[in-house]
Design a protein that fits this description.
This protein folds into 2 domains: 130 residues, Quinolinate phosphoribosyl transferase, N-terminal domain (Aldehyde Oxidoreductase, domain 3, Alpha-Beta Complex); 154 residues, TIM Barrel, CATH 3.20.20. The chain contains 12 helices and 12 strands. By secondary structure, it is an alpha/beta fold.
Length: 300
């Protein structure tokens, strides 16, 4: 993740502006402007960490927004070499220590934790789904995919969190690939018509994927040149029959299962033989990870 990209920079800055961090009334009235402190970021449960690279960026952006001397003082973010985004950490483990002006630490505390908790929650949930299809006897060959069901403005970071959890990114946006879904089919005149249009006018290198709801639609999609198949809202038995049918084709047609897939049944879909399993819950339903920050004055 490029934490200094203009898109991410704008997102982090907006978080500080939204919280009016440089106008922290309580901190500015109660804390010595010259006091330095050390803040420890601590995991309060077992989790997969994501977002550590944002921590120093928040302070750099804060210094850009706040011209007072306290914001311009030196700071350092220290973490163990073995702790980085994508690593599983244990409850009670210190993930990083920040040394900085105490006022700045207090004013940035909430936005830092908000981001770390959200992204680590996604990474942790993703790891649970990946483990469900890989870490048992006879691991499957399926890959866990994310979706576009993300918080507006947060997609790049949330998809990065999925990667940190061991998942695979699907389309980043609507321009990144061709996925013909039910509404396209119904509005565009049926599977043959929409497939013909997509294949004729696509950009070089774009694969045309078609969503199907049953075996009849699958046959129609294959017959009309679909290059990837999304099996929508099928149960594992239906998905298995479709995968077996797809494998009879001489050309490779990757298969994806989607809809109603949770931790309790993802293994069954993987064992059905699909190549990919997309799970919207990774980003739209992940619980925030339990992470805290303790701040203590530095000894002089």
């Amino acid at each position: 993740m490029d934490w200094k990209s203009s898109r991410i920079d704008a997102l982090l800055e907006q978080a500080l502006v939204e919280d009016r961090a440089i106008s922290d009334a309580t901190t500015n009235l109660t804390i010595d402007p010259d006091l330095r402190a050390a803040a420890s970021i601590i995991a309060r449960e077992e989790l997969v960490i994501c977002g550590l690279g944002a921590v120093p960026r928040f302070f750099e952006i804060f210094a850009r927004l706040d011209k007072r001397p306290q914001a311009q003082t030196r700071f350092e973010v220290i973490s163990h070499p073995e702790i980085f985004d994508g690593v599983r950490v244990h409850s009670g483990q210190v993930m990083a220590v920040i040394r900085h002006n105490a006022r700045v630490l207090l004013s940035c505390e909430r936005v830092i934790l908000n981001l770390l908790q959200h992204l680590s929650g996604i990474a942790t949930l993703t790891r649970q789904y990946v483990d469900a299809i890989q870490n048992t006897a006879g691991g499957t060959r399926s890959h866990v995919l994310d979706t576009r069901k993300t918080v507006p403005g947060m997609r790049a970071l949330e998809k990065y969190a999925v990667l940190c959890g061991g998942g695979t990114n699907h389309r980043l946006d609507l321009a990144s690939g061709i996925l013909i879904k039910n509404n396209h089919i119904s509005l565009g005149g049926g599977i043959p018509a929409v497939l013909a249009q997509a294949v004729e006018h696509r950009k070089p290198g774009q694969r045309v994927e078609v969503e199907v709801r049953n075996e009849r639609e699958l046959e129609e999609a294959i017959a009309n040149g679909a290059e990837a198949i999304l099996l929508d809202n099928m149960n594992p038995a239906q998905a298995k029959r479709c995968v077996e049918r797809i494998k009879r084709e001489e050309r490779w047609i990757p298969s994806e299962a989607s809809g109603g897939i949770v931790l309790d049944n993802i293994r069954a879909y993987a064992e059905a033989g699909v190549d990919f399993i997309s799970v919207g819950a990774l980003t739209h339903s992940a619980k925030a990870a339990d992470i805290s920050m303790t701040i203590d004055a530095e000894r002089r």
